[in-house]
Amino acid sequence: MALVLFGITGDLSKKMLLPALHRLAETGQLKEPVVGVAKTDLGLDGLRAFARQAVGQDLSPHLDLRLVAGDLADHGTYERLRDQVNGLGHLTHYLAVPPSLFATVAKGVAAVGLNTGSRLVVEKPFGHDVESARQLNAELLTCFEEERLFRVDHYLGKEPVEDLIVFRFANTMLEPIWNRTYVRSVQITLAETFGVEDRGAFYDRVGALRDVVQNHLLQLLAYTAMDAPPSADARAVLDEKWRVLRSVRAVQESDVVRGQYEGYRDTPGVAKDSRTETFVALRATIDNWRWAGVPFCVRTGKCLPVDALEIVVELHRPPVAYFSARPAPNLLRFRMHPDAGVTFDLLAKELDVLDRTHEVAVSVDFATALGPAEAAYEQVLKDALAGDPRHFVRFDLVEESWRIVQDLLTSDVEPEPYAPGTWPEAASRIAPGGWHSVGATTGQRAAPGR
Ligand code: BG6
């Protein structure tokens, strides 16, 4: 067995994959050699120096790195790869290359017979709309069977994301209230304080909807809303995710607000008159018996006031008010970043006042309770090497996710400008009752607001 990493000197490898491979090798979880494929011939020493820099420390002596240099459009590159991997057994080909090269590499690998018994792992984005995704898939399927195609969404490798389904299905207390009778709304937020930085040319063609909503955030929605699978096996979980995404109505323009932070158009690689959204808020509707009428509000953006990945489930208020002030609704918060954990915003009696309630947070930090979690890409790489499809995106899920946002992709609506470090005002109309504050650590939560 070996991992073939196409694009080993690229940005994703440098930032994510090489550090993850180093840690896996260091902890004895990666025994397979890693054969890097890169356009520039750095030589093995050069590659190790590059990897050391990426990792920020001496490279694990257990990381067995090898290198094949060559152009990915050149048949000779694949012939050299075939010679290099001779005798290593089954291969996992990981494509950390621009999407425009996915099909080229798959065909190159197949042309020298390196697809037989092997897997192909492809990064996001998978297509730029439903049609292009289908087209890409059809091309890849000419070289690899569906069971051997692994589409990465690194959010599925995040421990706190996986914990969402464990928390839901390992604790009896949630299921009875997990429906339209008790839940008033669900809010999913991915907020980042930084801008697009050196990714202007990529981001300007993509925007927030394609970059993180169609994939990461709809996957989170599926984990939050899906029914319990009939078994724990990967297929059963994927089937349930598909079933719930199938019930999500295609989002309409009237349920969307787009924003663009001031200064975005000055980013290198960004068009001076760009209409690309760096912020989007939308309201999704799930047409099934569990969730009919419950708004699922999703928002994400760059240059926002906080860094946070959080799901807030708001329950209906108690049906009868016994207290002088109307009690705040209970909130269940799944905090995935920073300080992963769960917080229930509940109500207790105000000291010395008989008929008044006071908000208290019942909270747990996973790092304190359970220890440090592995990085998402460690999980992704381990699963890819083990051939476990659980944390990858099956094609029918990709299709459903594109369908949900499809009507919004061709919009030429001018996004609302917002000052870096602020929430776009217009987004408040998307969440009935307003957005709940996110991003504060346990015990420091701001008063309800945005
Ligand atoms: C990537 C997007 O897929 O996910 C980035 O391209 C985004 O724009 C990133 O910043 C967020 O991932 P994470 O793991 O930092 O939450």
Key features of this structure:
disordered C terminus; alpha/beta; 450 residues; binds 6-O-phosphono-beta-D-glucopyranose; 20% strand; 15 strands; nine-stranded mixed sheet; globular; six-stranded parallel sheet; 12 helices
What's this entry about, in short?
By secondary structure, the chain is α/β, with parallel strands linked by helices. It has helices at 11-26, 43-55, 75-85, 102-111, 130-141, 159-170, 200-204, 207-225, 234-246, 366-370, 376-386, 395-405; strands at residues 2-6, 34-38, 65-69, 91-95, 119-122, 149-151, 183-191, 256-261, 279-284, 296-301, 308-315, 331-337, 341-349, 357-365, 416-418.
Descriptive overview:
The strands form two sheets. The protein has a nine-stranded mixed β-sheet. The protein has a six-stranded parallel β-sheet with strand order 3-2-1-4-5-6, sandwiched between helices. By secondary structure, it is an alpha/beta fold. Residues 441-450 have low confidence and may be disordered. The protein is built from twelve helices and 15 strands. 31% of the residues lie in helices and 20% in strands. It binds 6-O-phosphono-beta-D-glucopyranose (BG6).
